[in-house]
Request: fold
Amino acid sequence: MTEQEKTEKKEKKERIPRQAMPEQDPKVRVTNFDEVPTGYSPEMAMLEARRCIQCKKPGCVSGCPVDIDIPAFIQLVAGGDFIGAARKIKETNCLPAVCGRVCPQEDQCEKLCVLGKKFDPVAIGRLERFVADYERNAGTIEIPALPASTGRRIAVIGAGPAGLTIAGDLVKMGHDVTIFEALHKSGGVLIYGIPEFRLPKGIVDAEVEYLQKIGVKIVTDAAIGRLKTIDDLFAEGFHAVFLGVGAGAPVFMNIPGENFSGIYSANEYLTRSNLMKAYRFPEYDTPIAKGKNVAVIGGGNVAMDSVRTALRLGADNAIIIYRRTKNEMPARAEEVHHAEQEGVQFQFLTSPIEYIGDEKGWVRQMVCQRMELGEPDESGRRRPVVIKGSEYTIDVDTVVVSVGTMANPVIPMTTPGLDTNRWGYIVTKDETGETTRKGVWAGGDIVTGSATVILAMGAGRKAAKAIHDYVMNL
Amino acid sequence: MHRITEKVVLSENIVKTVFEAPDIAKKRKAGQFVILMIDDKGERIPLTIVDSDPVKGTLTIIYQVVGKTTDQLAQLEPGDLIQHVLGPLGHPTEIDGIETAVCVGGGVGIGVVYPIAKALKEKGTRVISIIGARTKKMLILEDESRSVSHEFHVTTDDGSYGLHGFVSDVLKDIIASGQKIDRVFAIGPVPMMRVVANVTRPHHIKTLVSLNPIMVDGTGMCGACRVSVGGKTKFTCVDGPEFDAHEVDFGLLMSRLQMYTVQERQSRELCRCGKND
Reply:
């Protein structure tokens, strides 16, 4: 190909605009819990795929924590081989329908797409989602041929993104893998945290079923640390253990009145709604406060999930209270945009300092103070500074505190030789996630603190290789 | 899946259920609890393990029928299944080095204090039990409690059986008698626990209560079960369930327990409508 031809080819690609994602109308979708984006049609997917210029050194792949061969799968989509594309992704990513929905592509693959320098990047996430959905709906999910059993047994603690990924990888290497999950359903944050309207639970169930079909054993209702310790698992004959237990403990702000009824951690609010299906109460038995004036404290994705849940539960006013400005919000731009479209209100540069309750102990008001931005802090974001004398009150009847999570202490507490840092996160020796305890690896939020689904999956993938080498040399 | 092996109605609305949970039965210690969920549409509720049989692989729970879930549980007969049981959860009761303990149980709380009394007696502690109920027909575990006690008292609020009065009245008399008491365990309705805490506080007798707030996951993930102890927020599921009675904010516990009163009533009524009785 001559330089001129190359340029022509590139220009031709660029003339196709990035295909917009069809979505439920905001007015309609706030009245239901159905998924907001409805997905590409095959025609849209092929059109979008044709925008990819098939770079020789694709930046997108280097931005992917699980190294998906992005140009290869996109080329298959462009040619209409959607099943082939799905299988190409599954070579390195066992949860494409999930990642296509919840990965922050704008900070990963799509950020490094060369088209993005001048135009809009290829919609890699939307294409990933499309092919995964296509394969699932076609009912042609392929069970790969598995190698002969190695006779090595590996225990994975936690059926979240890290645990599911490593289990899939290890079983494909011929190991005998058992996941122990404390909740009654597998999926971790995918099932208890992320709402139905962003990640339908049927998709998570299908991904989990796929893992079971390829031989992963899953034991739910198993509180490792209490029911069995890590030592017990080794005594039972497991050769290695992976800890993917997440950073499940909620953080509160320790301000007066925070224990009034009607004040939830985001974990509780979302667990009630998503895992326990409280939005379908009384068909399901678990209740949830259906507040009229709901304040959600925080500016991350979990805060967006909570405030949008509040709207769908019937709130008249669903307000984000965030101590910095819109620019510093850690939530994905897409989530903030969806929340705005749906009528979520935002109060920036504001922080609660006290809650006021009624005679029954139910929260009625929130005392807030105004902030202004000062010098950047260690996170690089400008530090919010209190404006003295700026206190004011907001009427609320439900509050969701979404200011982060921390490590759950139960496993470190009951596992001798497993070192943690001063925040309670598990110390790892290298990027494979090997811990200070022989035969034990860890990955995901329990090592890094709250991060993303895909980073946890990347950690699971790296640990899988290290565990494989370890158990094969025993 | 956990098969029910035995069900006994102990009093008007207090029921004992025994079910299979062999792994939990092996590990469980006095003071610990389980979270159970009857079916996939059910609620997750915490219940103290009253007894366990590691040989048969069974757990015993005792509960009062107060809402939809306990109502549904009480309908289950031997052979029926409980879908999900998670445990053993919470810290076991510290039972070492106690010379004399008073175990106070009120209502269905008798079922919770009984395993503690039993464990204490096995450790060589002198156990004084005081159990009480509103009325005679609501009294449970009398023989069992007596069998693990060196000294045993029964009260009823209406005087229909045992001493006419409250468990706290007997406790006051025992303290007044000048006996040395190292520890008091008080488990029952919130007002009872609060009264016992007030009785022992001036005498500086270390008093523990086992709390029963609303829980969801039971593993420290959600914070539904938070209580205030000595001005600090604690999660009952991982920090408890036992706390220093003199430090617990019982008013807060009470109000948080009533958070879903309206929905609980709605749920119970719907559940009853579906029945043929």
